[in-house]
Specification:
Belongs to the CAF1 family. The longest helix has 19 residues, at 161-179. The protein has 212 residues and is mostly helical. The chain contains eleven helices and three strands. It has a three-stranded parallel β-sheet with strand order 1-2-3. The protein has a single domain (2-137, 184-211), classed as Nucleotidyltransferase, domain 5.
């Protein structure tokens, strides 16, 4: 593990893109209580499930060791590093949990603060698909379906984190090439640090801009 992170530290100057996917058990708990907005419910569902469950692993590494090495890798708190994801709220939640070595914060504002601090440049393909050009092209479905519509070929098996991460990267670059060649600066500013599945409200966004 240490050797792999040493390699990553050497690569990041020349290859500043990180595509990320995790495999997790899904949603097994539904929060109970009074919620004033769907966004509040969605975060509490995320909070309960991620704090209870673990990523799916067969043998492998200790998440404590992974989180510690990731923290000192140069990949975090680095605006030059672009994180690419697909439907990313649970992926980032598990990653933040590993980095913090503790449970996720109960307050969603704190979670958004951690996310923007640790991953200041991140893009979720599902947020890209909401833009007018991909919507007009009627790109729909999950990662594999979107990749198929864009003629992006998978390497490896479906629902394996490595294969899904590579497919996520290839799909992102194909989308950017086909639909955002002329307006990427504008679009990227609109969706930066937005995670599909939980919504950063206007008040949260203002708080983040002030705090970071």
């Amino acid at each position: 593990l240490e050797e792999e992170f040493a390699s990553l530290r050497e690569f990041i100057d020349d290859y500043p893109y990180v595509a990320m996917d995790t495999e997790f058990p899904g949603v097994v708990i539904t929060p109970v209580g009074q919620f004033y907005a769907k966004d509040e419910f969605n975060y509490q569902q995320l909070y309960c499930n991620v704090n209870l469950l673990k990523l799916i692993q067969k043998e492998g590494i200790l998440m404590e060791n992974f989180g510690e090495l990731l923290t000192t890798s140069g990949l975090l708190v680095n605006k030059r590093i672009t994180w690419i994801t697909f439907h990313s709220c649970f992926d980032f939640a598990y990653l933040i949990k590993a980095i913090l070595l503790e449970k996720l914060p109960e307050d969603e504002n704190d979670f958004f603060l951690y996310h923007k601090k640790l991953f200041p440049t991140s893009y979720d393909i599902k947020m890209l698909l909401r833009q007018p050009a991909p919507s007009t092209a009627k790109l729909t479905g999950g990662l594999q379906e979107i990749a198929n519509q864009l003629d992006v070929q998978r390497i490896g098996k479906r629902h394996q984190a490595g294969s899904d991460s590579l497919l996520t990267a290839q799909t992102f670059f194909k989308l950017r090439e086909l639909f955002f060649a002329d307006n990427w600066s504008q679009v990227s500013a609109e969706i930066q640090c937005q995670m599909f599945g939980i919504k950063t409200s206007a008040s949260n966004a203002s708080l983040l801009d002030t705090a970071i």
